[in-house]
Amino acid sequence: MIEDVRYLIVFAKVVEKGSFRAGASSLSLSTASVSAYVSRLEENLGVALLYRNTRKLSLTSDGEKVFEVAKDIMSLYENGIYDFKRSDKTSCHNLKVSVPALFIHSEFMQKIAAFIDNNPNVNLSLLYSDIRNDIIANGIDIALRIGDMPDSTLKAKRVFSFNRKVVASNELLDKYPPITHPKDLQEFPWIGLTMRASTRTFTNAEGDKIEIKYSPKTFVDNIDAAYRLAKLGSGIAVPPDFLANDDLANNKVVELLPDWSVDSLKVYAVWPSNVPTNSLIYDFIQSVSPESDSCT
């Protein structure tokens, strides 16, 4: 059926141009290919559409009927493709972006606001969730994702990273012995994240690394929620600096083991691999990347 549509368009172009050679030239096909397509259409329909010799061709009565259908298909195709190609960034476009809910409180929102201001003709749909949405199944154009990317058919570009601190409330710390080493934290309650393993790797100034494992009694699927529970004394959390810095300054939470650090988290833009580089998707990725970075 799909092949018949192609054959019908070729047939209509041959009749419109008056010869196989002219039809082939307008379609950027060889004359032999065009002749073969028309012959296959005739075979599929079980009728002769054209009478032809080396210099002339004429429509049969069946050919005239089929040409009316083929002409409409060709017109629909040509006009639709022309209108689509003619549309540019002055037209209205839809863009669906998945963003970690955590970023609601970050400077990343300034980049989103700048993109909105610079693209008034874009209908932007933002999905805020710390759970990784399936890009293909949910029709998402771009997803911002935290953490290392698994091997995938999707394209990915690192756009930025953020530092984190291990924190707890004074109320929680009063219930336990002083903390002098990362392994001491294994005895504390933690607020677990459903989307991350319950392990942490600590590094000191000398480059020594210690990995600890812990068993949270409480799990959440949102980093902001984990931090808020930590502030209330329910356990240890590892929020990004932009969430915790003000509370640290006001002694609402305490940084644990400041001589040890946990790895910063990388943030990637992820999108389908068949997107052309001149698309709105690439414009968005470029707008949220560091100014010195280019998206390739």
UniProtKB/TrEMBL annotation:
Belongs to the LysR transcriptional regulatory family. It comes from Aliikangiella coralliicola. Residues 1-60 form the HTH lysR-type domain. It comes from the Bacteria. This is LysR family transcriptional regulator. GO terms for molecular function: DNA-binding transcription factor activity; sequence-specific DNA binding. The keyword Transferase does not apply. Keywords: DNA-binding, Transcription, Transcription regulation. One of its GO terms (biological process) is DNA-templated transcription. SUPFAM superfamilies: Periplasmic binding protein-like II, Winged helix' DNA-binding domain. Gene3D superfamilies: 3.40.190.290, Winged helix-like DNA-binding domain superfamily/Winged helix DNA-binding domain (1.10.10.10).
